[in-house]
Amino acid sequence: MRISIHFIATLILGIASMTASAGVPDRNAPLPYPEERTIQQAEQGGTQPGLGDSASGKQHLDRHYLGPYGEPERDVLLQRGGNTWRYLRNEDLALGCGVLLLVMLLVIVGFYMLIGPMRLEHPPSGRTLQRFSVWQRVVHWSTAISFLVLTFSGLLLLFGKKIILPWLGHAAFADLAMFSKTLHNFVGPLFVFCSLAIFVTFVHRNFFIHADLEWIKHFGGLVSKRHIPAGYFNAGEKLWFWGAVTMLGLLMSSTGLVMDFVVLDQTRYQLQIADVLHIAGASLYMAGAMAHIYIGTIGMPGAYRAMRDGVIDTEWAREHHSLWYEQVLATQDESDAMVPVHMPPMPGPIR
Ligand code: HEM
Questions:
Q1: CA-260 nearest atom, ligand 1
Q2: Which domains does the chain carry?
Q3: Which residues line the pocket of ligand 1, CB cutoff 6 A?
Q4: Each residue of 65-118: pLDDT tens digit?
């Protein structure tokens, strides 16, 4: 018992001290500019509060580098936190983001080759069922396209200097980076709007039901290829909705807006924190989106049709979303809900 209390106390202290040190600039980071080295020399032997001091952390940073609380940074000559942020962004975060995206790519390719797509057990019926309205598709496509634009422009900002600059040259890369930055700055607020719209449009379909537990237990039958009963959206889609669209959407929108509109006297320190959270959130969102796009296209044949045309085959609905299918049959006149497949699929909804 005593050992476990000691263990827990050590763990909590360890996590607390790591969190505390995360708020303080890395004092060991080499200082690249002569001005920084001069400041460091001038400060030597001074009375700066250490980690154990109650004035440590953010206050420590503010007092010495950002001016007193509440005051804009008018008298800041040089902020050493910037050095810590630069190392974190260019090394740890860039590496973490790159590794996560590559691992996700490998997992998806491996999954596709070893287990393969989730196909229908029976042939398609040839009759279709309305799944998404025009509005729902417009919202979905707008969110997806703005997300992809932000992804590619964001990745260019993060990795471009290391990967693209060496073969494109400084002049062309400068134009490309400036274009990406401007594009990202303008598409960002559009994505915030799309995220709000997609949340309002689909939230009523995403409340968890008891059957979702079974779906999670069997990982949706993705490995066993068994069709687990699911409602209009299955548990995986709901987790994507709450975890990514909602939570990561909030994180990306808030940190993005903080960096996009520097009109509230944001300090450099706050912008650095926002950027670090933005990159971490972007990495998770992009990795999740890769899995989402896989399952919505080649991972589950027939699913993409719902996004493109708004309809799916009735057999697809019966096997992948059996609870919803039964609900549709119980509440709607069959001839009203289903339409023959030979009707023109494009453009617009089939009714
Ligand atoms: C979910 C989609 C998004 C992804 C994947 C994404 C990704 C990224 C990435 C990778 C960076 C580069 C960070 C760096 O180089 O330090 C970045 C920077 C940035 N993002 Fe986003 N972002 C997204 C959404 C947003 C939104 C919604 C906004 C604004 C409302 C926004 C505004 C910004 C700004 C202002 C920067 C800094 C640009 C600069 O270097 O000046 N982002 N984003």
A1: 35
A2: 83-340 (1.20.950.20)
A3: 89, 147, 150-151, 154-155, 157-158, 181, 184-185, 188-189, 191-192, 252-253, 256-257, 259-260, 275, 278-279, 282, 285-286
A4: 444 444 556 555 566 667 778 888 998 999 999 999 999 999 999 999 999 999
